[in-house]
Specification:
With 493 residues, the protein is α/β, with parallel strands linked by helices. The protein folds into 2 domains: 1-327, paralog of FGE (formylglycine-generating enzyme) (Alpha-Beta Complex); 338-490, Flavodoxin domain (Rossmann fold, 3-Layer(aba) Sandwich). It has 9 helices and 20 strands. The strands form 5 sheets. Strands 15, 16, 17, 18, 19 and 20 form a 6-stranded parallel beta sheet that branches. It has a 4-stranded antiparallel beta sheet with strand order 1-2-5-13, with no helix packed on it. Helix 1 (2-17) packs across helix 2 (104-111) and helix 5 (348-360) crosses helix 9.
Length: 493
């Protein structure tokens, strides 16, 4: 009966979403406090050609994205760009892309399961790993009589580029479709407000450097829904695609790595690596991490409450096979010598670190600075965003003299402006974490991890990342139990 209801729900969703042009409508800096409504202007480049997206030949629920050449990445003067967004010329071929993120009803109808943190048939499915997303593509292809795109052997996945079945977009396809002919940080003329996308609406683009003087902003802070919303609840981009910014991020095929030099045609990502790329930002992201060029990454066997799926299909058969494992040659440690290393400004993170020490008996190490941040709250807000924007590396006063003795690093920090404080970046670049396991934990005011896990993954590419623990402020009365459960999941004797 449950499966029948799921199928019926899927048919209902298909009826609602069939026409892609119709909406269904249906300590993150340090710690949050209420702010007045605020926004920022971004000029949009005019498109030289007619909109290349057309649904005339597309399968139901998809649009045809006509291929073309574009500048992938971001210019050096784009606010809050990352070093891995090197601007380069890319050409992509025609492909079909789903108008909407895959819903929970669609996912459950195919797999019989729903791993999502939020519940609702019309909500996007989330908390799916990259491996699960690839398996869903194959299963749905099989149900519809299409040739599956992937051959899967454990963590090793091979992509048959000639197959007509469902697949995940390449990173280049995703950015090309998101931009829809633009070269600005977002596809719309202005950066998105909370009425344009589902994200952490208190923090529109460039709020960080304008937090106390907001007259320069063109988009004001708005609603933070703290949940996913029904797919298609906001206007589509010029290609007819919904929720390309916000709601949930979306897995791509690519292994994460530096962009190759020179012009590229239909690139498929790094030749090797440990982690897959996901794009677009989710319901708990700041606007800066929803930019068209922003790249996030995670282990392919892990899922998150803000990562989902958008499907594509070939418009014409490609050539060859692409193989990628996305995993380490050896698994990270789950037992061995443990170090708890943490940076704390207001004391919340220190309290969590001390609770972990109490339960594990592990060595405790506080990351301190030669020139500490200000003790004044408003001042440290400015200092923290300044250092993040400049990707500064504050000099550390304290150092671990015997890092080679530790197998597991339990790494703690406050969520500052939706990422790690820059002293954590200094710490991660000071040591060799190859073969070690990093277990992150953070204190936050509502945005959970933000994009801090991606930041850690990029700075410690040869470490294994365990499941993270996010603690709201100081954790309250449940802290001891939350820490205990987290440790039992991540540590083995």
């Amino acid at each position: 009966m449950k499966q029948i209801l799921s199928v019926l729900c899927t048919f209902l969703m298909i009826g609602i979403l069939a026409a892609c042009g119709k909406q269904t409508v249906a300590e993150d800096r340090l710690t949050e406090h209420d702010t007045e409504n605020q926004t920022e202007t971004v000029s949009e480049n005019s498109m030289e050609n007619e909109n290349p997206a057309s649904s005339a030949e597309a399968p139901e629920g998809f649009v045809l994205i006509k291929g073309g050449t574009f500048q992938m990445g971001s210019p050096e003067d784009e606010a809050w760009r990352s070093e891995d967004e090197t601007l380069h010329t890319v050409t992509v071929s025609d492909f079909y892309m789903g108008c909407y993120e895959v819903t929970q009803a669609e996912y459950e109808a195919v797999t019989g399961e729903n791993p999502s943190s939020f519940s609702g048939g019309a909500l996007p499915v989330e908390n799916v790993s990259w491996i699960q997303a690839a398996a869903y593509c194959n299963a749905r292809s099989g149900q519809e009589g299409l040739t599956p795109a992937y051959s899967m052997d454990g963590q090793t996945v091979s992509w048959d580029r000639s197959a007509d079945g469902y697949r995940l977009p390449t990173e280049a396809e995703w950015e090309y479709a998101c931009r829809a002919g633009t070269q600005t940080p977002f596809y719309m003329e202005n950066s998105p407000g909370s009425e344009d996308a589902n994200y952490y609406g208190h923090y529109p683009y460039q709020i960080e450097e304008n937090y106390f003087t907001q007259e320069k902003l063109t988009v004001r802070p708005g609603e933070y829904r703290q949940t996913t919303v029904e797919v298609g609840s906001f206007a589509a981009n010029p290609f007819g695609l919904y929720d390309m910014h916000g709601n949930v991020s979306e897995w791509t095929w690519d292994l994460y790595g530096e962009y190759p030099e020179g012009e590229q045609t239909d690139p498929v990502g790094a030749e090797g690596g440990m982690r897959r790329v996901y794009r677009g930002g989710g319901w708990n992201d700041f606007a800066k991490n929803m930019r068209s060029a922003y790249r996030a990454t995670m282990d392919q066997d892990k899922g998150s409450f803000n990562i989902g799926i958008r499907l594509v299909r070939n418009a014409s058969a490609g050539n060859g096979n692409v193989v990628g494992t996305g995993v380490q040659d050896t698994e990270g440690e789950t037992g061995g010598n443990v170090l708890i290393a943490y940076f704390s400004w207001g004391g919340n993170t220190r309290g969590v670190a001390e609770e972990i020490e109490r339960q594990t008996g592990a060595d405790l190490f506080e990351i301190t600075l030669v020139e500490p941040y200000s003790e004044d709250y408003n001042t440290v807000l400015d200092e923290a965003q300044r250092d993040q924007n400049e990707q500064a590396r504050p000099k550390l006063q304290s150092h671990v003299e015997n890092m080679e003795d530790y197998d597991i690093i339990i790494l703690g920090y406050p969520n500052w402006w939706a990422s790690i404080p820059m002293p954590i970046a200094t710490f991660l670049e000071e040591y060799d974490f190859s073969g070690k396991t990093i277990l992150p934990f953070c204190s936050h005011g509502g945005g959970r991890f933000g994009q801090s896990l991606t930041a850690i993954a990029k700075l410690a590419p040869d470490a294994s990342l365990g499941e993270g623990l996010s603690v709201h402020y100081s954790g309250g009365s449940s802290l001891s139990d939350d820490v205990k459960e987290w440790l039992e999941t991540n540590l083995k004797e």
